[in-house]
Amino acid sequence: MTPLRQRMIEDMELRNLSPKTIILYVDNVSRFARHFGKSPEALGPEAIRTYLLYLVQDRQVAWGTYKQVLASLRFLYRNTLHRGEIVHDIRCPRPERHLPEVLSFDEVRRFFQAVHSFKHRTILMTAYASGLRISEAVRLRICDIDSQRMVIRIVQGKGKKDRYTLLSPLLLQMLRYYWWAARPVDWLFLGPSRIKPITVGTVQRVCRDARSEAGLDKAVTPHILRHSFATHLLEAGTELRVIQELLGHASLRTTAIYTHVSTHLIGRTRSPLELLHEQDQTDTLQEDS
Q: Are residue 223 and residue 111 in the same domain, yes or no?
């Protein structure tokens, strides 16, 4: 390991970045250095611009990947090399906006019917019923299920923040059946070794298989179940601020995207043309009387 890489890792640890973020940033900087065959210390603004253009034009990476690379380079030059002027004028492009895909109640029902393993169905229903990220669902412990207060405690979720989300009575009943059958001791959803928790990859594979068996046209991932949780709550009349807390969003703007997704809310919204027509009818009745 080079001294520069070691120093960057230490700088990220001092700022309490997650292990996943540290690995991602180090990998991005390594790719940048290998592209030019030089240490980042010997590269400047023109090299960064050239590399970013290479990612966009030649590699055609997604804008999310582009943003991650740019964030990695910004951290390196600002915090480790203390040469922030090199990345000062490099701006992130306006991101493409894509609305999240959401399942209807019928599609959710068909999906769960196609998940035949009781353990797998339970963890996916937990993710849907409580709006969990899959990384949060697989790392649930028995002690995180608070049946007295009817909440689930999420320990060190995204952004290293704790939060509580709802525990429905139906989910609690299902979890009790699951506990009776599986007898977990610490981790709630165990992997094959019964020592470590089930992996994210396993749950994602189950989603793909169940989606195929259910004959659903939409892609189904654990995160789409989370989107569906938020949209279904919004359509049921839950306040956006409450949904923000349940999801663990730092900004209400992030949660507000579900107002654009809900076709139910859009369908209930009356067009101004209808309001204009009603006003015309009212005016006509007043004139006749």
A: yes
- What contacts 194, CB < 8 A, 6 or more positions away? none
Look up 223 and say whether it is catalytic: yes
**23 and 115 part of one domain:** no
Q: 59 an active-site residue? A: no
For 14, the domain range is 3-86
Q: How far apart are CA 114 and CA 80, in angstroms?
A: 50
Q: What is the pLDDT of residues 238-287, one digit of tens each?
A: 888 888 898 888 888 888 888 776 666 556 655 566 666 677 677 776 76
- Confidence category of residue 86, pLDDT binned at 50, 70, 90: confident
- Given the residues 74, 226, 227, 232, select the one marked as catalytic: 226
Q: Is 249 among the residues known to form the active site?
A: yes
Query: Which residue is catalytic, options 25, 128, 178, 258?
Result: 258
Establish whether 128 is a catalytic residue.
Answer: no
Active site residue 241: no
On whether residue 30 sits in a domain, the answer given is yes
Q: Considering its fold, how many domains does the chain have in total?
A: 2
Task: Return the beta strands (E) in the chain as ranges.
Answer: 145-146, 151-154, 163-166
In this structure, is residue 279 part of a structural domain?
no
